[in-house]
Design a protein that fits this description.
This protein has 17 helices and four strands. With 559 residues, the chain is mainly α. A hairpin with a 5-residue loop joins β1 and β2. It is rod-shaped, with a radius of gyration of 42 Å.
C-alpha cells in the first residue's frame, strides 16, 4: 500500500508533461503530505500491528482475571488444600483441572467406601475361619423351603441380565463419545490447518511483493520481510499449539477408550462366567469371582467419577464457547485455537482501509481531471476500482465496483502506450511519449504490489478478525456441543446403573454362597438334595415319618 506513492508519481510525470504541452497549469495529484500520511499509516499496519502474537499475554494478565472466561467458579480445588477455585475456564491451569476432576468426587467416594467394606468383610471372614471351630462351622443346618433358594437365584438372574444390558449401553455410549470427541477434534484441527494455509498464502504474496519493491524501496522490502516472518511464526505457533493439544487429546482418548472397553468387557465375561459357576456349584471359584468383581465394581465407580468430570468439562467448554460469541477478546480459548489481538487488529485494519480508500479516490479524481483535458488518448482511461466503502468502517466490498472500472494492477497496461523507450526527456519528446522507462518500471512495481495486497486483503481480514476461530467455535457450539454432552451423559449414567447392579449382584452371590454352604446340590440344580422333606406338606411329612417307623419295626422285631 505504501506503493501508491510510486504509482501516483508515475501519473505525476504524465500529468506534468500534459500540463506543459497544453499550457495548462494544474496539479491534480495528492499533495506530498497526503501521500506521506497514507504511506506511514499503511506501513504502520503492515510492519507493526498486522499480527500481535498471543505470547505477549503474560501470566500476570491471567491472574488478574482479564484473560479467563468466568465459568467453573466456587469448586473445591484439591490441589490448593481443598479451597474454593476462584479462577475461570483455563485448560492450561492445573487448579482448573484439579477442581474439574474433583467434581467426580461422588464416584470416587463410593469406590473408596466399597473397597473399605470389602476389606472389612475379608478381615471378618479371615478371623471367622481362623478362630472359630471348624466342626461348629460344619454343624447341622436347618432345612428350608424351596422359595428360600429359588428367590435369591431369580435375583441373581435378573441382576445378571441388568449387568449385561448396562454393560452393552456403556460400550455403545463409549463408542459414541469417542466418535463425537474425535469429530470436535477434527473440526479444530481442520480450522487450524486452513488458518496456516491462509497465512502461508499471504506470506507467499508478500514475498512476491518484496521482490517487486526491493529495487525501489528497501524500507518497504524490510517491513514486508519482517511481517512475513512474523506471520510464519504465527502459523507455526497455531500449528504447534493445535497439534500438541491434538497429540495429548489423542493419547487421553485412546487410553480412556481402551480402559472403558476392557473394563466393560471383563465385567461382561465375569457375570456370565459367574452364572455358570453358580449352576456348577464351584464354591471356591465363586469366591474368587466375588473378589474380582468387587475390584471391578470399584473401578466402575471410579470410571463414573472420571466421566462425570468429563461431563463437567464439556459443560464448561460449551459455556465458554457461548461466552466467546459475545466477547471474543482475550479469552483462554486461545489455548485451544490461537488468535491475534482482535482489538489492536481491528484498529489497524480500519486505518489501512481508510488510507487505500482515500488514495484510490484521489487517483480517480486525477483520472477525471485528465479526461477533462479532452485529449483523445486520455478520454477513455477507465477509473480504478475502489473496493472499500466510505467511513466510518471502510468495509472491504470488491463487489460494489462497477463494470467500467479496472483493478489497480491493470494500470501498467494503460501506461504502456505512454511509455517511451529511454530514460531521458529528450527521447520521450522525440517519441511523443510522457513516461520514461524507469518511471514506468517503478509504477509497474508499485501498482502490482498494491494489487497483490488487495488480493490477499480478505485473507488478512480473516486472520486479524479471527473469523476462522469464530466460525469454528460457532460450528462446535451450534452443531456439536449438545451431542457431545449427551454422549458423555449416556456413559456416566450407564456406569452408575452398571456399578449399582454389580453391587447388588455381588451381594446376591454372597447370599447364594452362604445358602449353599455345607449342602449337597446336584450340578445344574439350585435346591439342595435334602430339601424334599422340608418342603413337603405337614400330612406328607407325618406319613413319611410313620412309614419310616414301620420299616424300623419290621427290621428289628422285639422278642
Amino acid at each position: 500500500m505504501i506503493a501508491l506513492s510510486g504509482h501516483l508519481h508515475s501519473y505525476s510525470i504524465a500529468v506534468t508533461r500534459l500540463d506543459n504541452k497544453d499550457g495548462v497549469l494544474m496539479n491534480p495529484l495528492p499533495t506530498d503530505s497526503q501521500i506521506r500520511w497514507s504511506q506511514s499509516t499503511i506501513a504502520h499496519f503492515i510492519g507493526r500491528n498486522l499480527l500481535q502474537e498471543q505470547s505477549n499475554q503474560t501470566g500476570e494478565d491471567r491472574q488478574n482475571g482479564t484473560y479467563k472466561i468466568l465459568v467453573a467458579r466456587n469448586r473445591i480445588d484439591p490441589l490448593n488444600h481443598f479451597k474454593r477455585y476462584k479462577g475461570g475456564y483455563d485448560i492450561e491451569n492445573k487448579h482448573y483441572w484439579g477442581s474439574t476432576v474433583f467434581t467426580g468426587v461422588y464416584g470416587y467416594a463410593i469406590a473408596a467406601a466399597w473397597i473399605i467394606v470389602g476389606l472389612v468383610y475379608g478381615i471378618f471372614l479371615t478371623v471367622k475361619y481362623c478362630c472359630c471351630n471348624k466342626k461348629t462351622m460344619k454343624g447341622q443346618y436347618k432345612p428350608h423351603s424351596r422359595q428360600y433358594y429359588v428367590w435369591p437365584f431369580w435375583a441373581v438372574i435378573l441382576l445378571t441380565i441388568a449387568a449385561i444390558i448396562t454393560t452393552g449401553i456403556v460400550l455403545a455410549g463409549n463408542t459414541q463419545f469417542h466418535t463425537r470427541a474425535k469429530r470436535v477434534e477434527k473440526t479444530i484441527v481442520g480450522a487450524a490447518q486452513r488458518a496456516t494455509d491462509t497465512i502461508y498464502n499471504v506470506t507467499s504474496s508478500m514475498k512476491t511483493m518484496q521482490d517487486q519493491l526491493r529495487p525501489y524501496d528497501e524500507n518497504a522490502y524490510l517491513r514486508l520481510n519482517t511481517t512475513a516472518e512474523r506471520l510464519d511464526r504465527e502459523a507455526l505457533n497455531i500449528h504447534d499449539r493445535v497439534y500438541d493439544n491434538k497429540q495429548a487429546i489423542d493419547i487421553g482418548l485412546r487410553v480412556l477408550n481402551v480402559v472403558t472397553i476392557v473394563l466393560a468387557s471383563v465385567i461382561l465375561a465375569l457375570v456370565i462366567f459367574a452364572m455358570a459357576i453358580l449352576l456348577l456349584h464351584w464354591r471356591k471359584v465363586l469366591f474368587l469371582a466375588i473378589f474380582i468383581c468387587w475390584l471391578l465394581t470399584t473401578l466402575a465407580w471410579l470410571a463414573f467419577g472420571l466421566y462425570f468430570a468429563i461431563h463437567t468439562f464439556a459443560d464448561d467448554s460449551c459455556i465458554a464457547l457461548k461466552d466467546y460469541q459475545n466477547n471474543p477478546y482475550n479469552t483462554t480459548l486461545n489455548s485451544i485455537l490461537p488468535c491475534v489481538n482482535l482489538q489492536a487488529a481491528d484498529s489497524s485494519l480500519t486505518e489501512a482501509r481508510e488510507a487505500v480508500h482515500l488514495m484510490i479516490s484521489e487517483l480517480n479524481q486525477n483520472i477525471s481531471r485528465l479526461q477533462a483535458l479532452r485529449i483523445s488518448t486520455l478520454e477513455n482511461i477507465p477509473r480504478v476500482c475502489d473496493p472499500f466503502l466510505g467511513p466510518p468502517k471502510y468495509e472491504y466490498r470488491p463487489d460494489v465496483c462497477s463494470n467500467d472500472t479496472i483493478q489497480i494492477g491493470l494500470i501498467p497496461q494503460l501506461l504502456e502506450s505512454f511509455k517511451c523507450s529511454g530514460n531521458d526527456t529528450e527521447t520521450c519528446n522525440n517519441e511523443g511519449k510522457y513516461i520514461t522507462q524507469s518511471a514506468f518500471d517503478l509504477a509497474e512495481a508499485y501498482t502490482l504490489s498494491i494489487q497483490n495486497l488487495l488480493d490477499i486483503f480478505p485473507a488478512l481480514e480473516s486472520l486479524t478478525n479471527c473469523s476462522f476461530v469464530k466460525d469454528t467455535f460457532s460450528k462446535i457450539l451450534n452443531e456439536q456441543c449438545q451431542p457431545f454432552k449427551s454422549s458423555v451423559n449416556r456413559v456416566w449414567t450407564s456406569l452408575v446403573a452398571l456399578s449399582s447392579a454389580l453391587i447388588f449382584l455381588v451381594t446376591s452371590w454372597i447370599v447364594k454362597a452362604y445358602q449353599n454352604r455345607g449342602r449337597q446340590i446336584s450340578k445344574g440344580c439350585i435346591i439342595p438334595n435334602d430339601t424334599t422333606s422340608a418342603t413337603s406338606s405337614p400330612m406328607t411329612q407325618q406319613g413319611h415319618r410313620t412309614h419310616v417307623q414301620m420299616q424300623d419295626i419290621h427290621a428289628n422285631p422285639q422278642p
